Amino acid sequence: MIGQAIEWMLAKLSHFVIETISLFGYTGIVMTMAIESACIPLPSEIIMPFSGYLVATGQFTMWGVTLAGATGNLIGSIVAYWAGVWGGRPLVERYGRYLLMSRRDLDIADQWFARYGEAAVFFSRMLPVVRTFISLPAGIARMNFPRFALFTFVGALPWCYGLAYLGVRLGEEWDHLREYFHQFDVVIGGGLVLAAMYFVWSHWPRRQVES
Fold first, then answer.
1. CA dist 37 to 32, 57, 138, 151, 190, Å?
2. Residue pLDDT, tens place only, 150-207
C-alpha cells in the first residue's frame, strides 16, 4: 500500500515539475522552488537538475536558472518564516504531517538554529532536509527579517547552481549515452525518479509513525 502511494506521488511530482518549468520557463523554476521552500514536498533535487538539463539544450542559461532557483527559495522561505512568526511550533505540529513534515524534521531544524544561530540560515541552505525547514525556527525565534532574507538568498545560490550543474553535465553527455538509450528522457527520467524516491522515502515512514 505504501509502495503504491510512493509510486503515485513520484509520478505526480515529476510530471508537475516538468510541465510547470516547460510551460512557464524561468517563472516555472521560481514557482516550483517557492513551493519546495515553503515546506511543501516538491524536492529541489528534481527541480534544479531538470532546469540544468534545459541549460544543456540551450533553452536556459546557467546563471538564469541559478538565480531563478534562489529567488524561488527566498519566496517560499519567507512564507515559512512568517508561518513560524504567526503560528509558532503548535501550527507546524498540527498540520505539518499533511505535508510529510515530521516532528523530527522540525527538531533537527530547531537544533541547527539553536546551535548555530543566524548562520544556520545560510549554511543549512546547502543541506538536504534541513534547508527545507530552517525557516520555521528562524521565524519562531523572530530572526531579523532583512538578515534572514539575505542569508537565505545567498545560501541558496550554491545549492541551486550545484544541482543545475549536475543536470547540465548529464545533458552534455547525451552524445556518449545515446548509443545505449533510444531516448534521453530515459536518462533524465531515471535521475528525477531517484531524486524523488529519496526525498519521499526519507519522509514517508516518519509520517506513518507520527500520524
1. 9, 27, 13, 14, 24
2. 999 999 999 999 999 988 988 776 554 444 433 444 444 455 455 555 555 555 544 4
Q: Which of 123, 172, 122 is nearest to 151 (CA)?
A: 122
Chain position carrying cell 535521475:
191
Query: How many whole angstroms separate alpha carbon 102 and alpha carbon 92?
Result: 9
Number of domains in the chain: 1
Alpha carbon 97 to its chain centroid, in Å, reads: 17
Cα-based distances in Å from 4 to 124, 193, 194: 32, 14, 16
Contact 196, 10 (CB under 8 A): yes
Domain residue limits at 81: 2-210
For the entire predicted model, the pTM comes to 0.74
Angle (deg, nearest 10), helices 145-172 and 62-95: 120
